[in-house]
Amino acid sequence: MAGAASASCIFCQIASKSRPTTILHSDEKVVAFEDISPAAVRHYLVIPVEHIPNVKDLQRRTEDFSLVTHMLEVGQTLLRRDAPQCTQYRFGFHQPPLNSINHLHLHCLALPYTPRWKCVKFLSLGSIGFLEAEKLLEKLKPLPPVISKV
Which Pfam families match (predicted)? Predict the structure, then answer.
């Protein structure tokens, strides 16, 4: 479940700046940094400051939709700034059981993949594969309020 930072979570340590990492962006909601095992020309991670284990812990509500939207906007801004020569970008999340760290993190990739075989880690395989950020946003978008006619 979402909640307080976990002392054993490496991403919580990065978010609280208790683990030395080059931070590309930081605000009250998210922190962004380079992936330690890049799979593309540029490969960044955007994580929430709050400990949220994975995409399965997000719900169709304004707060979660707003958080993922902000994560995506930060990732897009960083890649446009740092890899303007790239013409293709990918943004998404690994889903359990294929997520490597139990702290929600958005992969921001400026393609091509390097080396090319690393694209395998980012295949969409239904409910267990790589989930594109836009598809997650569709799932999280709050429903409009129902207005009853009297």
Answer: DcpS_C (PF11969)
